[in-house]
Amino acid sequence: xxxxxxxxxxxxxxxxxxxxxxxxxxxxxxxxxxxxxxxxxxxxxxxxxxxxxxxxxxxxxxxxxxxxxxxxxxxxxxxxxxxxxxxxxxxxxxxxxxxxxxxxxxxxxxxxxxxxxxxxxxxxxxxxxxxxxxxxxxxxxxxxxxxxxxxxxxxxxxxxxxxxxxxxxxxxxxxxxxxxxxxxxxxxxxxxxxxxxxxxxxxxxxxxxxxxxxxxxxxxxxxxxxx
Length: 227
Hints:
By secondary structure, the chain is of the alpha+beta class. 24% of the residues lie in helices and 40% in strands. Strands 1, 2, 3, 4, 7, 10, 11, 12, 13 and 14 form a ten-stranded mixed beta sheet that branches. Helix 1 (13-24) packs parallel to helix 6.
């Protein structure tokens, strides 16, 4: 069985797989592409013999709607840890510069892997090493970003180490290869702008032809199976 499930915020991808396994009463289940706990959206769940198709789904193009705040930084590149206020950049100037440099992030690019990620170094996940305060050499990977479109430019009030701050915020639609870290895109965009940047919200809107508007919520899946 192939299921297009909407992963809620603050659930891990494994949480969703475990829930689906329990609801459907299947022994074999997995997902086709991890979403961070703070992200939400399309999570393709494969059960039974369809788990053999995982590689095919992993290769499919992913689409995201990402909201990025400029002017703050975080070691997780998102809101998992309280952001540090770097500056309060002007909205018009920041957005003008951003549009100039966005093309640098399309095509085949090299990304820095977030220190707080599941990528393993000598068999240990980087996030566990980071939480222990251990220093790690910068890890990079090659990914492909097919397109980045600006959907909205606004401001957003965020809690930071210096209290609340109103920062320029841009919403982007991103189409990319599997394995792309949208958190890294936010961080590296902030570096290029010299303002700092963090991901404040992320929705995966598509995995190949599987789209968010067709996804099933976990509570609805539970309801359907209990009938």
